[in-house]
Amino acid sequence: MFMISWTDFWMFALPAFCCWLAGAWFAWRGNRIAKACGFTLAGLLIFAAFIIGLWVSLERPPMRTMGETRLWYSFFLPLVGLMTYLRWRYKWILSFSTVLALVFIGVNLLKPDIHNKTLMPALQSPWFVPHVIVYMFAYAMLGAATVMALYLLLRKNKRPAAMEMDMCDNLVQIGFSFMTLGLLSGALWAKEAWGHYWSWDPKETWAAITWFCYLSYIHYRLHRKTSYSIALIMLLISFLLLQMAWYGINYLPSAQG
Questions:
Q1: Start and end of every Cytochrome c assembly protein domain (predicted)?
Q2: Which of 24-28, 51-55, 88-92, 216-220 has the lowest mean pLDDT?
Q3: How far apart (Å, rounded) are the C-alpha atoms in residues 87 and 3?
């Protein structure tokens, strides 16, 4: 039986990226929706084949290490880009999602995480897989919103349009909803694995800070519909806090012990 490992990653990542690149190119051409969607979807299927194959080979879900979570992020970014493109027809979104996915693919090619097949008992909970998948999808949605916010802030001599801000709002609201589901499933996982729903450890604390920051953005947009610059800056700050909750805490002094 053919077993897939990290050494096979490039054989799936390269054709998947080429398909995403082709999809982004057809999106830029305009009026090529079928080809843009077809190529992007083909890349997603190729990448999904690697994830499934690695899952079977490891005999566990590939969600244990940072490299494995980057794998899911690389998958969900083009998926979110495709969904956004289909909904709002922003032709640039597939290009941005492809570039961001390439960054995570490149990191995994240069620094793959190779571990044994076993999972610690706490990670064998049935809540572990949905918790990680929901969170990765939320991160991808919020990442797309951040790219849009950065673009609107750096664009010269042109004030963001209401429609463009509405797109940021929609992406944040969807991402925030999935983040909330991630928090709830994480609490259920913690209860089953450690006997309590919440313990305010560094991971949970930063996750809560990030959640409240995005909630603040949503409330601010509800009451300050025309204060675009402040809202966009809030969005960037929220995403920086999200990075701390995702992997930044691993570099804190408390994590070194």
A1: 91-252
A2: 88-92
A3: 38
d(CA 129, CA 107): 23
String of b and e for 211-233 (b: at least 16 CB within 10 Å)? bebbeebeeebeeeeeebeebbe
Mean pLDDT (whole number) for 122-142: 87
pLDDT score of 1 more than 70: no
Domain that holds residue 242: 120-257
The two tokens of residue 189 are: 């996982």
In a domain, 115, yes or no: no
Residue at token pair 């991402």: 175
Q: How far is CA 16 from CA 2, 10, 43, 79, 239, in A?
A: 20, 10, 4, 12, 27
State how many domains the chain has: 2
Does residue 57 sit in helix, strand or coil? helix
What does the block give as tokens for 146? 């951040």
